[in-house]
Amino acid sequence: DFFRRRHREHTMSNAATGVSLRGYFVAAAGNVEAMKALADEAVSIVRAVGAERGCRKFGYSMSPGALGSVTFTFIDEHDSAESVLAHLARVHGPLSGTVNVSALTRFEVIGAEGRTGQAARGPGGSRAAAGLL
Hints:
By secondary structure, the chain is α+β, with helices and mostly antiparallel strands.
């Protein structure tokens, strides 16, 4: 449909010049409000510091799933891997809380070759060092 095509086009244009992250979390029916509170906290942190340097877009959407579950899709678009890492450090608190109320089902790092490596690995070269969860 139109919106998916526009999203795909925007993601591809950002991939040529920056780094995009997509995180897909599924919260069971009893955990939806807790997950929404964590997502809102992350958005509040980003807004409180003003426009993050190098952050083009940050937000989330919610989609209903089976048996009352909800998929939360986080969308981050940044100028560089350094910007991604700074952003993840800021939202680490609420992001780390998601492990108690949801399941990370998919995580994507999208960008031009040479731009995504540091964001995917984090400081020191390990995926755990990125502090994703």
